[in-house]
Design goal:
Blueprint: E1 2-10, E2 16-25, E3 30-34, H1 41-48, E4 56-61, E5 64-65, H2 71-79, E6 81-84, H3 96-101, H4 111-115, H5 120-132, H6 148-160, E7 166-169, H7 178-193, E8 198-202, H8 206-212, E9 215-220, E10 223-228, H9 235-242
Parallel strand pairs: 3-8, 3-9, 6-7, 7-8
Antiparallel strand pairs: 1-2, 1-4, 4-5, 9-10
Helix pairs in contact: 5-6, 6-7
The protein binds adenosine-5'-diphosphate (ADP).
The site of adenosine-5'-diphosphate has 12 residues, from α1.
Length: 252
């Protein structure tokens, strides 16, 4: 469903964040991208929906070439791709349900989108999605009064409003404590296993990747250094991805 060929990104300051990365992801896979901070994980995810413009390479979502799309087509493509952010990207002063509703309009809520009048069926959908993440009773509360884990679940409910085929989750649990991390990743797992959404999820910790992913992609200095099943990552592989001095930290 997703095909990436020779993807490279060099930032204007000369940083080579991605170097010739090629992968294919079949529908329904849960892929975790791992690597040190600065390895290129976030750049990689953001090139897929062109929040960051690739320097070279091509990306296809199904039959549509993302890298060739003009503005109107790109909007349509982005509707098929849900995005979940490390810092949740909620409109803090707006209510939980308004944040979820904004998912109807894509994932960069702006003032005009929040003044948009939603239809009754949008509200019904938003409530279904809030119930799904266990936050229906919080619908009227201001987003910034929720805990981090709850805010991320609002982010998930917002992504669900798009009924996306593909979810890009950029370090979705990096700001959360381990127990809360699992409640969020369990939701992503459900979207993957129950709804058949393909998930690409950046994760810092190998232990979380082992628990949730069907497949792990290792990035180091912008290069693909591993592509396989989590079980294949032994001590040697681990050091190839994280460096010689790295030690494994387990998140229970
Ligand atoms: P990760 O998500 O694995 O931490 P990133 O994709 O954020 O890695 O960053 C990859 C590399 O690109 C890093 O060296 C980072 O400093 C650099 N980088 C990221 N964003 C920018 C930017 N806007 N301008 C210049 N360099 C950037």
């Amino acid at each position: 469903m997703l095909r990436i060929e020779h993807l490279s990104k060099t930032y204007p300051n000369g940083t080579r964040a991605l170097v010739d990365v090629s992968i294919e992801v079949p529908k329904g896979q849960f892929v975790s991208i791992i690597g040190l901070s600065g390895a290129g994980k976030s750049t990689f995810l953001r090139c897929i929906n062109r929040l960051i413009e690739p320097t070279s390479g091509r990306i296809w979502l199904g039959d549509v070439e993302v890298t060739a799309a003009g503005p109107a087509e790109l909007r349509l493509i982005r509707r098929r791709i849900g995005m979940i952010f490390q810092h949740f990207n909620l409109v803090k002063r707006s209510s939980v349900i308004t944040n979820v509703l904004s998912g109807r309009l894509g994932y960069s809520p702006t003032l005009p989108s929040l003044l948009y009048r939603f239809r009754p069926e949008d509200y019904a959908d938003a409530r279904v999605n809030l119930e799904r993440v266990g936050l229906l009773e919080k619908e009227k509360q201001r987003a910034d009064t929720l805990s981090g884990g709850q805010q991320q679940r609002v982010g998930i409910a917002r992504a669900l409003m798009q009924k996306p085929e593909l979810i890009l989750a950029d370090e979705p649990v990096a700001s959360l404590d381990p127990a809360t991390a699992h409640t969020v990743l369990d939701q992503l797992e459900q979207m993957n296993k129950r709804d058949g959404m393909t998930v690409l999820c950046n994760l810092h910790f190998l232990s979380l990747a082992r628990r949730y992913a069907d497949r792990v992609i290792g990035l180091k200095d912008g290069k693909l250094v591993f592509d396989g099943e989590p079980e294949e990552i032994n001590e040697t592989r681990f050091k190839e991805i994280y460096g010689e001095d790295a030690i494994q930290v387990e998140i229970a």
